[in-house]
Amino acid sequence: MIWNWEFAAEALPILLRGFVNTLIATVVGTIIATVLGLILAVAIRGLPRWINWIVRLLVAFVRNTPLVVQLIFVYYIFAGIPGLVDVPALVIGFIVIGIHYSTYMSESYRAGIDSVPPGQFEAATALSLPPVRTFTAVVLPQALRATIPSLGNYAVAMFKDTPFLFAISVVELVTSAQQFGAAKFAYTEAFTLAGIIFLVASYPTSLLIQRLDRRLATY
Amino acid sequence: MPLTEKTPATPATAGTPAIEFKDVEKSFGPTTVLKDLNFTVAPGERVTLIGPSGSGKTTILRLVMTLEDLTDGYIFVDGEPLTFEERDGKRVEMPKKRTREMTTRIGMVFQQFNLFPNMTVLENIIEAPVHVLGKSKAEASTEAKELLERVGLSEKADAHPTRLSGGQQQRVAIARALAMSPEILLLDEVTSALDPELVGDVLGVLRDIAETTDITMLLVTHEMQFARDVSHRVMMFDGGQVLEEGPPDQIFNNPSHERTKSFLSSVL
To answer: Which of A96, A207, B108, B230 has its CA 20 to 30 A from that of A66?
Structure first.
């Protein structure tokens, strides 16, 4: 193995530019997934049976097909609709990743909500709290305690799934490493640095999630 | 339904009952827990339900608190239907919002306290006054602190419930129920989950409430001495039916049914 420091120095700014796209996709994707995941979890619980059935079917569909296939599928659908041709690939990317992970996060929310003891709902009824207040003030804060660790893990998993965006021509970290590697025949430098950037970003995030989890556990 | 004479201390029974059960039936799946149950509780009256486990006592409290669905029949609070009403000869479910308005008159204290662990003691108490009765936080907090003083826990206002002993948690739960100024208070085996040395404090608080307010109370308890001291009337349940009822002295000293005698001898 040959390591060329010059190539490495040259690659770094290019990789960091790619990393910006990785970060945007992860952060926006996480926001979409956490919000939509909660909506899905509540929808599956509270809605009429037929809507419930449709939502479950969609969730099953999204979970059981690969992310790459979903990205390409949506990308070419958008490309075929005149008004949507100009939607940037990155936007399509974080929407699809966000929806994909929302189906997993909804499951975490559901488990969190189920972990709230029935006595809490009964106390809320005994105090005549309206359903929305019961959910936001009593159920959700307790459910989140059980949910946050796995939401965090999904966010990290999402981060590591962003390279799939290459399939719809988004130049993120791994694609920029690939391109640099191909241009200079310096794959070792490019991919080593890409790996380090991933590690430097995701390891502190994992630690942060652990700390958050401990803080939430203190009441 | 055998309606016996009341002790002199019993509030006047004339007028509208605080609680009325009319032809109430409650089944869980194939199991019928209550059948053709009829009884009334007068405003200000304190009634203890006793009987073997599985006799439906707790179910009665839960039905009044709308924690269980009524299988058949009607429950009235202050003469107004709670969950179902009769309209054009048909039994119709009341709108949820109306039922919730009705339940603001009713408070309940649970065996397992059921305080909200994500809120402080004070937040637990002001939650419903602020978000159901629309009181200001300041007003609700002032009242909450008075209630905490009454149950002897002034210094715990900012603590989280998990930091309190069972007896303290239960006293907070009582304060939380009282913060809604209920006309009716339901007490479901409120000392059963407590260590013996903590029972006295909780019963002391309840005695104080019984003596100083005219809140209608419906209680399920295994503390027979307490039941004897505070209640105007005792109802003995067996198999989802009222086996006999009367003033505590009569039921405890001179029960007329063999089942009541054997039940009392098993718990006293």
So the answer is: A207
ipTM over 0.85: yes
Enter the tokens of residue B204. Answer: 């002391």
Q: Among all residues of chain A, which has the CA nearest to that of B130?
A: A129
pLDDT digits (tens, 9 = 90+) for A106-148: 999 999 999 999 999 999 999 999 999 999 999 999 998 889 8
Q: Which of B65, B119, B125, B131 to mutate: most A Cβ within 10 Å? A: B131
Q: Which positions in chain B touch A133 (Cβ < 8 Å)?
A: 131
Question: What's the pTM value of the predicted model, to 2 decimals?
Answer: 0.84
A125: closest chain B residue by CA: B67
* CATH number given to B1-104+221-268: 3.40.50.300
d(CA A139, CA A121): 8
CB contacts < 8 A (A, B): 63
d(CA B11, CA B7) in angstroms, rounded, equals: 9
Nearest Cα residue in chain A from B175: A127
Contact A120 B114 (CB under 8 A): yes
DSSP-derived secondary structure for A129-161: --HHHIIIIIIHHHHHHHHHHHHHHHHHHHHHH
Tell me if chain B has a CB within 8 Å of the CB of A217: no
Per-residue pLDDT tens digits for A14-46: 889 889 999 999 999 999 999 999 999 888 877
* Alpha-helical runs (H) found in chain B: 57-64, 96-103, 121-131, 137-150, 166-178, 196-212, 224-230, 248-253, 258-267
Fold of A5-216: MetI-like fold (1.10.3720)
- B chain contacts of residue A138, beta-carbon cutoff 8 Å: 116, 118
Distance from the A155 Cα atom to the nearest Cα atom in chain B, whole angstroms? 25
